[in-house]
Every structure is written in C-alpha cells, then in structure tokens.
Amino acid sequence: xxxxxxxxxxxxxxxxxxxxxxxxxxxxxxxxxxxxxxxxxxxxxxxxxxxxxxxxxxxxxxxxxxxxxxxxxxxxxxxxxxxxxxxxxxxxxxxxxxxxxxxxxxxxxxxxxxxxxxxxxxxxxxxxxxxxxxxxxxxxxxxxxxxxxxxxxxxxxxxxxxxxxxxxxxxxxxxxxxxxxxxxxxxxxxxxxxxxxxxxxxxxxxxxxxxxxxxxxxxxxxxxxxxxxxxxxxxxxxxxxxxxxxxxxxxxxxxxxxxxxxxxxxxxxxxxxxxxxxxxxxxxxxxxxxxxxxxxxxxxxxxxxxxxxxxxxxxxxxxxxxxxxxxxxxxxxxxxxxxxxxxxxxxxxxxxx
Length: 353
What we know:
By secondary structure, this protein is an alpha/beta fold. It has helices at 15-27, 40-50, 70-77, 114-122, 131-141, 184-196, 215-223, 238-247, 273-280, 293-296, 309-321, 323-337, 342-350, and strands spanning 2-6, 32-36, 58-60, 82-87, 98-103, 125-128, 146-147, 164-171, 203-210, 230-234, 250-253, 284-288, 304-306.
C-alpha cells in the first residue's frame, strides 16, 4: 500500500510531530510511505530529535500547500492508496482510496455544519491520542474515533540520579495566546518559591525546543531564572534528552494551569509523552490534574496530581523528604510506563490502514 503522511507543523518538533513521524516509521515497515514536506533537511532534524529511523520513508513536495491548486492536489493525491493527515479540525478533499485523520487535541472552535458532516463521511478512520481527546472529539463530530496511545521507547541507562526536577517541552510564543504555552514561567516561579522557602541542594532543568522566531521571548524567560539553580537545555537531540531523563528524580508538567479548560480544553496537555518518558527513566511525575495526564498518573501510586501551586510544592516536598515513598512511586512509575509500548502502537495503527 502507498501511504502519504502529512503533518503541517513538522518543523515545530512537538508531540504531534513525534506521533506522526513515529507512525511513518512504523508504517514504512509494512508499506511504501512518503512524508509530504518541502524541506528534506527537516526530516533529518526529526530523526535526530526523536531518535527515529526514517531511512525507508520517501519525501515529496507538500501538495497540501496553499501554493498547490485544488485540482492539482486531487491529481497528486490519487496516486496514494491512503493519506494519514494530522488535522487541526480541517478535513481535506483528496482522491486517495483511504483518508485517515489524526486529531491530537479538542477542536471546540470547529463548526460542524452540513459541509463538515459530508466530509466526515469520506473519512475512513479518525485516530486520537488519549481518552481526554477522544471524549471531546466524539461528542463534537458525532463519531467513534479510535484511541491509539503514543508509543514511548524507554532508553533506560545506569545513570546516577541527581537532586533534580526536570521538565521537557516546547517553548512557543508565536501563534499562541499569552507567553506561557507550556507554563514554563509558572514552573520557574514555583521552583524559585521553594528555594526562597528553604529548599537546598536541588536544581530545576528545563529542556525546551525553541524555534528561531521565539528565541528572543525564550531568552526573556531565561532571564527570570537568574540567581537560582535553574538551567536550560535547548533543542537537544533525543540521546541528550534521555541523559537528563535518567538523571532526574522528579518530573514536572503544568500545561493548562490557570486556564479555563471548560472553554478551552485544548490548552490542557492532550496526552503527555514526556511524562511517560520520564516515568520510564525513573523520574516520579508531579503533574497537573488535567487533560491526558490523568490517564498516565495515578495519584499517590506512581506519582502525584495537583490542582494548585501549593499542592505542587507540597507533593514535591513529600517526595524529596520521604525516600521510602519516593522509591515506591518510582518503581510503579517505571512499570506503568511500559504500558505505552511501540509494539502495541504499531499493531493498533496498522489495523487502521
């Protein structure tokens, strides 16, 4: 089968891109796969950033570009048996035999009119990344989407754990509302508060992917950490990130904090690949009680969920001071991370094509 994979945000190197390019790698083992993208060097960056092998994947110009006419797009899409399309709520009109959509987040802003309903009938499958996303997508579109959790390949090493809290996530200012998309400002403020209240001999590390358009704003955020044991790892490779995962004792995630998630559910973390990766490396998660994080972390069993800044601080302090409890949660976190494996992902994904 000839399959085209399209992700309009490929150069942003976020969780959606990891999902789609891991899918491309997986599908290429059984099918003839092409990624639709105009810059082949970005594919090399994807391999480096996510530790993927895309050697069997071809790259062809993106015919979903606005530069391509509707009729030309139809003609080019006809040569594929299936198209796997990362959607922001839009549904393309294509001439392939199959159209499979992947939706990473809720699309509450989409108007489901008659035209949209007709387009949905042309879709063979809608794949989502979490029950959080599935429940909202199914209700919005009137469909029964297929849940395929993102795969996590654990790269456990015998690294000595350090007194370190870690967060991994994109820094993104361009195209989003506010200046704290992943709540890195909030986490910096939280760690500074802990230090001011007496925390010693611990550090906070933020691993961030940063596009050049956001660099100046990222540097402004870095400046707010001055004078505290806070450091930044920028645009690291997959290999480098795993070194930090394996050194960290605690993992923080806060996407969605302070947001009206009933009105804007897409601002919560839709799943949380980095949380699972951290767990697999033996870092105990202390993450916000929202979005897909609740499907990963069982409060008090393999980590902690929190609703307020003070709860985040209290839960983190508990882990720092109670070594026996920390070890119990660490062992369970490592075990639970194994549920999100590559083989399961591969089997479930291939069944959609």
